[in-house]
Amino acid sequence: MWLLYLLGPVLFCCVGSSIPVSQKLFGEVTSPLYPKPYPSNFERTTVITVPTGFRVKLVFWQFDLEPSEGCLYDYVKISADKKTLGRFCGQLGSPRGNLPEGKEFMSQGNKMLLTFHTDFSNEENGTIMFYKGFLAYYQAVDLDECASQSNSAEETLQPRCQHLCHNYVGGYFCSCRPGYELQEDRHSCQAECSSELHTEPSGYVASLEYPQPYPPDLRCNYSIRVERGLTLHLKFLEPFEIDDHQQVHCPYDQLQIYANGRN
């Protein structure tokens, strides 16, 4: 009697509770009292959290819950990224229920919720049944932030890189194409062509992204210097396209050439 009196408050305190799992790279989650039969009239949500930059992968190794149509009585519900990944119940060999056997569950972020719910009894045709519950293992899997950023249809939890994205285990970093500088937010790029110097006897000078459209808000200075005694010959290749106006001479975008102090 004393034992039952002490166990009652312990089980009751866990109904509708939420238990966080510390940020480990791997671990296990079980039903209460596993592998002994789990209690009735019980609900608990386990929050699995792995370090930032990783995803949660969950696999069930043992699963033995009361089977029912649509898993209305006892069930395990898996959620991640504000979505339900599945609701499961049943046991091996049972035609009813929905088993997670052979399935891997993966989150997009670094959290996954596992809700375990039981009704008031476990009976079948008047016979009390004893179900063991479940045993599941989770592990942290590196999140390829760059792959998720390249998929425009997929919602990403991280800011997008404006130009180039580089993934590493546990995180990522951004870089810019030549002619641009990475800004303080570490994601956006701004054109930097304020002081380019060319000293080769021959070569090419081009606007940023040429022959693709050049970006807005540019102020580029290209200096060409050769040895004293030599002259410079500058020839423009096709296509040559700069924003113009039919009535006003170069009011918007313009290219100016200076030589010997003359424009």
TrEMBL record:
One of its GO terms (biological process) is complement activation, classical pathway. It is found in: Cell surface. Residues 1-18 form the signal peptide. InterPro entries: CUB_dom (IPR000859), EGF (IPR000742), EGF-like_Ca-bd_dom (IPR001881), EGF_Ca-bd_CS (IPR018097), Sperma_CUB_dom_sf (IPR035914). Pfam families: CUB, FXa_inhibition. Residues 14-141, 193-263 form the CUB domain. Its main location: other. It comes from the Eukaryota. SMART domains: CUB, EGF, EGF_CA. Transmembrane segments: none annotated. The keyword Heme does not apply. Gene3D superfamilies: Laminin (2.10.25.10), Spermadhesin, CUB domain (2.60.120.290). This is CUB domain-containing protein. The lineage of its organism: Eukaryota, Metazoa, Chordata, Craniata, Vertebrata. GO terms for cellular component: blood microparticle; cell surface. Keywords: Complement pathway, Disulfide bond, Glycoprotein, Hydrolase, Immunity, Innate immunity, Protease, Repeat, Signal. GO terms for molecular function: calcium ion binding; serine-type endopeptidase activity. PANTHER family: COMPLEMENT C1R SUBCOMPONENT, COMPLEMENT COMPONENT 1, S SUBCOMPONENT-RELATED. Disulfide bonds join C193-C220.
